[in-house]
Amino acid sequence: MRNALPKHNKVTSTPEQILHRLDWEVLRRLDGVLQGDYRTLFYGNGLDFADLREYQMEDDIRYIDWNVTARTNQLHVRQYHEERDVTVWFLVDLTRSMGFGPEGRPKESVLIDLVASLSRLFTRNGNQVGVVLYNNGIRLTIPPRSGRVQVLRLIRVLLRETESSEKAPTDLSVLITGALNIIKRRSLVFLISDFISLPGWQKPLSVLRRKNELVGVRLWDRSEVDMPNVGMMVVEDAETGEQLWVDTSNPKFRSRFKAAAEKRENELEASLKKTGVQLFSISTEEDLVAAIVRMAAFRKKRRR
After folding, report:
1. pLDDT band at 133 (very low <50, low <70, confident <90, very high)
2. Rg of the Cα trace of the chain?
3. Are residues 144 and 202 in the same domain?
4. 103 and 163 inside one domain
5. Measured distance CA(1)–CA(41) in Å, rounded
6. Residue range 190-244, pLDDT digits in tens
7. Which of 62, 78, 153, 288 is the most exposed place for a label (fewest CB within 10 A)?
């Protein structure tokens, strides 16, 4: 079963109001927690090859050069220049299922806040951010630029797109394949979606990961995995418009709903494991600062 709850009220704040709120509620708190160490927390290892040297005990085995090792009979590792600047792309899914969630904070609202906050973090240090926006097709591409004006532009188009969702099944392979054609230079890429999609996106996602540093962000709501007991109600498939009366007070129905949700979770986890993509799940109930700190801490630990 797909998303189905009463519709929420669309966000009415202006881009300037949203960014002002995030500067106070998110960015200021992150400055205190992360102490400005965004580059070392979110960036991957340097991308430009510099030199070879003999392997040492603390080296990452992923950087062993096996060809040189075979010729010299001595373990050698590649060294890279650390990149000082990075281009950040956000691949965002704003299909109808992203409108699901509690009133005032559906998944699409969390997405806008997340993209705006991360964009602000990166552009404050002179880095460039861009967006590929999917809504039953590639609706818009915003080339990477830096600065506060760029962040406001991203917020503006995301707000506008939440008002124009069409009823159709999501196909993330269209978004990912489109990104492969658009992103020419190795970049830090955030794929943000609820991953409720037609199959077939795993293979292009693997290719995208090999060409870029890729972070998957899954947005979800508790009601998607644990149906609340609210009696008889009409549920609607957010993407097709199909409606159905259900009795949420029926324990057997809620049990089947939960089992189906767990199956979907397991299938998603297995698919992403095959692609080698990091996935961070953020709930509509989670504090955004805590979520960003959790992502940064995990990436820092993985780098070490």
Report:
1. very high
2. 21
3. yes
4. yes
5. 37
6. 999 999 999 999 999 999 998 998 999 999 998 888 877 777 777 666 666 677 7
7. 62
